[in-house]
Amino acid sequence: MEEVRVFPLTCAVQNYAWGKLGLDSEVAKLVLGGDPAAVVEEGKPYAELWMGAHPKGDAQIKDNRIARTTLGEWIAHFPACLGSKVKDTFQGQLPFLFKVLSVNTALSIQAHPNRELAARLHAQFPEHYPDNNHKPEMAIALTRFEGLCGFRPAEEILGFLKSVPEFHALVGKEAAEELRCSVGNAVHTGQVLKKCFTRMMNCEKKVFVDQLNMLVKRVTEDGAAGKDTSSSIGDLLLRLHSQYPGDIGCFSIYFLNHMLLEPGQAMFLGANEPHAYLYGDCVECMACSDNTVRAGLTPKYIDVNTLCEMLNYTPAPASSKIFPCVQDASDPCVSLYDPPVPDFSVMRIQVPPSVKQYTVAPVDSASILLVIEGDAMATSVAALSDITLSRGTVLFVSANESVSLHVTCTSGMTMFRACCLL
After folding, report:
1. CA–CA separation, 78 vs 323, rounded Å?
2. Are 337 and 266 in contact, with CB atoms under 8 Å apart?
3. Which residues are part of a known binding site?
4. pTM summary value
5. How does pLDDT run across 134-160, given as a tens digit for each residue?
6. Could you give the maximum distance between any two Cα atoms of the chain, in Å?
């Protein structure tokens, strides 16, 4: 059946505890849209939709002419569907994993290793680091999306050391003073930030739990008295503490940029960039890996030494962490998010209500197309029959194939497409 080169997928759902519950979750809504017979349980978290061929969540091909098989098996049989460049560069594997995330409570503060470190960690601790690949990733907001990303400018961190005595106590007087003296010398600031962050992360548990309890008590009392708690980011602190009481990660909000992305805005998380997703829905694309070094806001294994050693300590403002998209020169409906790694790119396709015929252009890479809004009838020489597209439909499109859409709704369409543009 190699001649069928465009087909719909049934994708794996991950029910991690941090996901939004039932139909509050964008993941659950998309699953239901893609399959009206699907059952969504109200009290159950629907955290991630995995669109790809990762062994922990390989998509099923939904085409009755193809015997029950997964996308990973299909690619192994017909690697030409990847496109020749992608096939050769990534050893016959789909190089990316495409996801939708619906975040209700914070994910752990984490960073992903570069290729070199990933290989070393995997060789030393395979139980914690399951593969030897790097894991750059990009999140594009579907709803207002909140996260932490990268170290704040030194001036902001010094502001918190001044206004949050409990934070100052963990970092220590000497390191705080060193940071103050380093301002203006970027290289030195990075070195001192490493010292400050490492000191905090290595604090004795009793010490930091006592300081955290004092801080939470003070912020709670100030809030109740109607005082402004923004100088200690009181609202976020209390929210994270309620989710992860007694967790050192609660203090990381004074080191890391607090990001608020509007729909369509993106964050790119390169190797060694500390980050955490806090709340909201996004599409995410990443290199096909599962390697994560955690630092807090988690009950999972925390590898403090590796984390403190590997992080990128370059301070930068929150605004610099927003990753820009570029309008496609040949198609006004397409915005391209093209990060500085070869493994993946994402296109946002917005078809306006006035356009009824639209062609998803061929690219020299296998791609995965997700419909977020709108309805259409899709035809492709490579599909051999029409495919109905609606909210939640996921389509695999082999390299160099185009798909013609006859839009059947009045409100236009929004789609995201992941591919590998070498």
Report:
1. 34
2. yes
3. 110, 112, 137, 275
4. 0.96
5. 899 999 999 999 999 999 999 999 999
6. 70
